[in-house]
Design a protein that fits this description.
With 278 residues, this protein is α/β, with parallel strands linked by helices. It is built from six helices and 14 strands. Helix 5 (172-181) links the parallel strand 8 (163-168) and strand 9.
Length: 278
């Protein structure tokens, strides 16, 4: 938990308790893994982050994540790994989902699948809830993220006012709608999945931080992390070609937010975008 200074209208200085949260977009392949591992400690210090969340669903060659990769990401200083529709594609991760409280899959998948989609993490004596949801527009017809999201957030509010939602979804309309639906009930709704960072970060009327997509932590000179030559050929020929991760230094994308620890409201939200040294 950090301490920040703000000034009231009368000019009186007030010390305010806040939690600073760094959230990074979808890790793509080994370039993304290397970027997180090599840069996390420096980035945490630079952004004065208390809590770090990353989306890791594309870590294994763009399709899923392995237990070994999760261990590596956690060891770099990450507190929670969220995911999305690709989380199921490496069978070795299914048991890890059951065993690890801080690797999440979208909560609105059918009951009975491995893992869970929310957790409470404690950092510096402060509790924060993290929720993972998946959209349905142009994606699978799973349970309603609106109803499930509201239910889980109401449950978490019994323990903490700080609640952050990673909404892994394709359609901007669906993301904005869920942000407004949960406005004032959560601290932030952060969009992932498209790998393209949007420039619409803002604080909604009820105090919820919002951005449609935080982008990716993956290779530069690529098409959403994949080799551009293959993507171009696929589009030109319409053949079902297998995508491959581009091998180049990664760009780290995400947001850093400052959240009022008492009210759970977001005080500031700022995009993060920097090139990794590896």
């Amino acid at each position: 938990m950090g301490l920040s200074l703000r000034y009231e209208k009368a000019g009186k200085r007030v010390v305010q308790n806040t939690l600073r949260v760094l959230i990074l977009g979808d890790i793509v392949g080994q370039p993304g893994i290397r970027a997180v591992y090599a840069n996390m400690q420096k980035l945490k210090k630079l952004k004065k982050a208390d809590l770090v969340i990353v989306n890791g669903e594309n870590a294994f060659d763009g399709r899923g994540i392995t237990p070994e990769q999760c261990d590596m990401i956690f060891s770099s200083g990450v507190n929670v790994i969220t995911s999305g529709n690709h989380i199921w594609q490496q069978a070795s991760i299914h048991q890890y989902l059951n065993d690890s409280p801080y690797l999440l899959r979208p909560e609105n998948y059918p009951v009975g699948v491995p893992g869970k989609g929310f957790c409470i993490v404690e950092v510096n004596g402060e509790k924060a809830g993290v929720v993972n949801l998946e959209g349905r527009v142009f994606m699978s017809s799973i349970r309603c993220p609106f109803l499930i999201g509201k239910e889980i957030c109401q449950r978490l509010r019994r323990e903490t006012n700080i609640i952050i939602v990673d909404f892994h979804a394709e359609w901007p309309e669906e993301k904005e709608a869920l942000g407004l639906y949960l406005d004032g009930k959560i601290s932030a709704l952060i969009g992932t999945h498209t790998h393209v960072q949007t420039a619409d970060e803002r604080i909604l009327p009820g105090g919820t931080g919002y951005i449609t997509d935080i982008g990716m932590t993956g290779p530069t000179g690529s098409v959403i992390g994949m080799k551009k030559e293959i993507v171009l050929r696929k589009n030109l020929t319409q053949m079902p070609l297998k995508m491959e991760v581009e091998e180049s230094p990664a760009e780290i994308m995400g947001v850093v937010m400052e959240i009022d620890s008492k009210t759970g409201k977001t005080l500031s939200i700022e995009r993060v975008k920097q090139t990794s040294s590896l």
